[in-house]
Design goal:
CATH class: Alpha Beta
Strand order of the largest sheet: 3-2-1-10-9-8-6-4
Number of helices: 21
CATH superfamily: Divalent-metal-dependent TIM barrel enzymes
Helix content: 40-55%
CATH topology: TIM Barrel
Length: 539
């Protein structure tokens, strides 16, 4: 079969899903539940078929978490002066932080290192939720069909609810033998493509049911089972995102990676990822326009052109600007001459879908205002949804160092762009760290310290910029900027508080899981990228 003829999924599958949506009339809990029931039944059939075809009947192996218990918050511990101080420090910069469960419940080794702590000393999911609650990290992320395995959903959600916490994101778990080895959603095998599509869609539907902020969509395949698919990956992923947005109305944050020999990526830089986001939304808009036209008899003429455009704009306004970015610092540094600050700036400046904006302008020339569209345009602040702060050396893989431990200046410049756009208190920061040499909780806490510190320096730069009457402090000559940077770091107070890492030892003692070895921060020891290079980097 030629590549251009490869279909994302069986047309009958898509038809059924969209019929369920049409029957309900809108994306609501009842629709999501019916869609989930259909998706999960179809996945079961596909899993059995794939097991018989490729694995001699053996079912796919999931990364399963132990059963999660519902536990009451320990308010005595929560109200202790040590945890209160930690919460004050976390919130001192006014930023929103979330935690990925899989980083903190791991075996204190990573994809790149051996296990160094026995299973008996690992933190449970309940431990992670309790720790985050006590230190004021209110968002939690997980993998559906991973940490969020069958039977765990209700318990996790109840534990979050009683602590006034929320779901940040739910990743669809494609890190299994079938989907990794055979190419996932872009596989040359129709059954694997369809199973991967359904797993991702299941995660999106659960995001809506569980009140998540968005779903992070990882466009790569980690691990030793990478596979070069026989399908045109980019087209299939755009089609999937268009379907997912229409069927769930959940925001999608695309995560890309510039280069890594162990990873196959579809979109490997920020420009390509943003192009994918806009193309997927443009495809959605064209579908909506076609549906509206069919509802008007299928023929466009002078008598119905304005009504057609108005209704299309109104319906698309629910979805406009909902596909954006999750930027991981270390993913930008895996190739030389790319910087996180540039990626952040690109994401912030990325516009809404051009054909949508063109139609809104056309309607205004006809004195027609679409309130929903005006609200979207008024509040749109670009396509940066989420950050995975970490760090790495340029061109040397993805070791998940603590953020700003190698590229402090570039991190500060990224924070500067976020603050200037008014986004720093709207997006969420979720340290992406696989602990290799130490305690993942301490790495997590130290990452929060570094993020808050970087934003404090950025705030000082903005204050200097205002005082000096500069339009953009980053455009100053290198020598002058360096002087301003020293002022911001050394001569002005940094408006943030450090979390004492001893809070982790206190928590581990409380839950009976102390760590005996000395803590070694997961960080690089290199020079920050020069600001001039950070500004001039091509993408």
């Amino acid at each position: 079969m030629p590549e251009e003829a490869i279909e994302l999924v069986n047309p009958e599958l898509r038809k059924t899903l969209f019929e369920i949506l049409r029957r309900h009339g809108e994306v609501n809990p009842a629709y999501r539940q019916e869609a989930l029931t259909f998706v999960q039944k179809r996945m079961g059939d596909l899993e059995r078929h794939i097991a018989d075809t490729f694995f001699n009947g053996q079912q796919d192996i999931w990364s399963k978490a132990p059963e999660v218990r519902v536990t009451a918050p320990n308010w005595t511990a929560f109200n202790s002066k040590e945890y209160e101080a930690a919460r004050n420090a976390v919130s001192s910069g006014g930023l929103k932080f979330s935690a990925g469960i899989w980083y903190l419940t791991g075996r204190l080794g990573s994809r790149f290192s051996p296990v160094i702590v026995p299973d008996g000393e690992r933190l449970s999911i309940e431990d992670v939720i309790n720790f985050c609650h006590r230190v004021g990290v209110t968002g939690i992320a997980w993998h559906t069909r991973g940490e969020m395995g069958p039977g765990n959903r209700d318990a996790i959600l109840e534990n979050l609810k009683t602590r006034n916490m929320h779901v940040s994101s739910e990743f669809a778990n494609l890190f299994t033998e079938t989907t990794m080895k055979f190419g996932g959603i872009t596989s040359g095998y129709a059954a694997v493509r369809e199973l991967s599509y359904l797993r991702k869609l299941e995660g999106m539907l659960w995001c809506g049911q569980d009140g998540a902020d968005f779903q992070v969509d990882w466009l790569g395949q980690d691990g030793p089972l990478v596979y070069q698919p026989n399908a045109p990956r980019r087209r299939l992923l755009i089609e999937y995102m268009a379907d997912a947005l229409m069927l769930t109305e959940m925001p999608i944050a695309i995560e890309y990676k510039t280069g890594d020999p162990a990873v196959k990526m579809t979109e490997k830089d920020v420009t390509a990822a943003l192009d994918m986001a806009k193309e997927a939304e443009s495809l959605v808009y064209s579908r909506i326009k076609q549906q509206v036209l069919e509802g008007m008899g299928g023929k466009l003429n002078a008598a119905n052109a304005l009504a057609w455009t108005t209704e299309s704009v109104r319906l698309f306004s629910r979805l406009a600007g909902k596909i954006g970015l999750n930027i991981e610092d270390g993913h930008d540094y895996t190739e030389s001459a790319r910087t996180t600050s540039h990626a952040v700036e690109e994401g912030i400046n990325s516009p809404l879908t051009p054909d949508f904006l063109s139609d809104v302008h056309f309607l205004k020339t006809a004195n027609i205002e679409v309130i929903e569209a005006n609200e979207v345009i008024k509040h749109f602040k670009g396509r940066l949804f989420h950050r995975h702060p970490n760090d790495s050396f340029i061109g040397q893989g993805d070791p998940d160092f603590i953020p700003a431990s190698v590229h402090e200046t570039d991190f500060v410049v990224a924070a500067y762009h976020e603050q200037k756009a008014g986004l720093h208190k709207e997006i969420s920061y979720e340290p992406d760290l696989y602990a290799v040499r130490g305690d993942p909780l301490k790495d997590f806490v130290e990452a929060i310290n570094r993020v808050n510190r970087g934003h404090a320096i950025a705030a000082n730069l903005i204050a200097i910029e205002k005082k000096e009457g500069l339009s953009c402090i980053l455009d100053q000559p290198q020598e002058k900027f360096s002087r301003y940077y020293v002022m911001a770091v050394q001569e002005m107070p940094l408006n943030y508080q450090r979390i004492d890492l001893d809070i982790v030892d206190k928590f581990r003692e409380e839950v009976g899981k102390p760590i005996k070895f000395p803590y070694v921060p997961l960080q690089g020891h290199g020079k920050s990228l020069p600001i001039a290079k950070a500004r001039a980097s091509p993408n």
